[in-house]
Specification:
Radius of gyration: 22 Å
Number of helices: 8
Number of strands: 16
Distance between the termini: 25 Å
Strand content: 25-35%
Helix content: 25-40%
């Protein structure tokens, strides 16, 4: 199966040149609901009791009535902070089943001036340190957390959290992979971001297609064509053009 990554030209050229790609921290993604659980009543009560017990151990006294009243708000604040906590440890790669979604060309490929790279999903994840590319589930309700001492059950819940998005995003037809950030190449600071950029290698032979955007400048097309011809001769080049009768994009071989 071919899965696609929408990118600005500058970043796309780096991906093609270095065979490395960013896995992004959940809190750095463009959906504010990333990694936000809902606690069921039993799990919330367990969390409140555990917090009270830890407070007593740390401070040598039980909570006061006022402190106990504030506790649910403190727990809620910690839940809202979960994406930042996850972002210290894991990164996500998002790919799409579709290569002609106009909104994605606009949002992720510099308003149709960038490119889309098509990866063979099996070759991409061969012998990798990241998880299998998995289709995102789109839902009207957020994942619910239920406390469990079973490690496998806990991991399943985490997977459910990371692979569930609102139905408002279903047009993206997204597949995701997870990785521990500690395995990345030397991370570096990005301008205007509090999060480091973590890059991960992938097999260059997994690149199968490059698609130019409707408005990709001719100089960028020439630069990318030369790069692909020299270093990735098996890769096929395409271009996106507006459909003559609808608001869709058609993909044609690049000539």
């Amino acid at each position: 199966m071919i899965l696609y990554k929408y990118l600005p030209s500058k970043i796309g050229i780096k991906v093609l040149t270095n065979s490395s790609i960013r896995f992004t921290q959940p809190a750095a993604l463009n959906d504010p609901f990333e990694s936000l659980w809902i606690f069921d009543e039993d799990s919330l009560n367990e969390t409140l009791k555990a917090t009270e017990s830890m407070y007593k151990v740390e401070f040598g006294r039980p909570m006061s009535d006022n402190e106990r009243l504030e506790l649910p708000f403190l727990v809620e604040r910690e839940v809202l902070n979960l994406p930042k906590e996850f972002s210290k440890v894991i990164g996500l790669l998002s790919l799409s089943k579709e290569n002609n979604v106009s909104l994605m060309w606009s949002h992720y490929a510099n308003e149709h001036k960038g490119l889309v790279i098509g990866f063979d999903s099996e070759l991409f994840q061969a012998e990798s340190q990241y998880t299998e590319l998995t289709e995102v589930e789109y839902s009207k309700v957020r994942p619910i957390y239920s406390s469990s001492k079973d490690e496998k059950a806990g991991w399943k819940q985490l997977e459910k959290l990371l692979f569930t998005k609102s139905i408002n995003w279903q047009y993206e037809k997204e597949f995701r992979s997870i990785v521990r950030l500690e395995y990345s190449e030397a991370p570096f600071k990005l301008p205007n971001s509090e999060y480091l950029c973590h890059l991960f290698k992938f097999p260059s032979e997994s690149i199968k297609e490059v698609i130019f955007g409707w408005h990709t400048p001719s100089n960028k097309r020439e630069e990318i064509q030369k790069l692909v011809t020299k270093n990735l001769p098996e890769v096929k080049l395409f271009e996106a053009k507006p459909c003559k009768l609808s608001f869709d994009l058609d993909i044609f071989p690049f000539k």
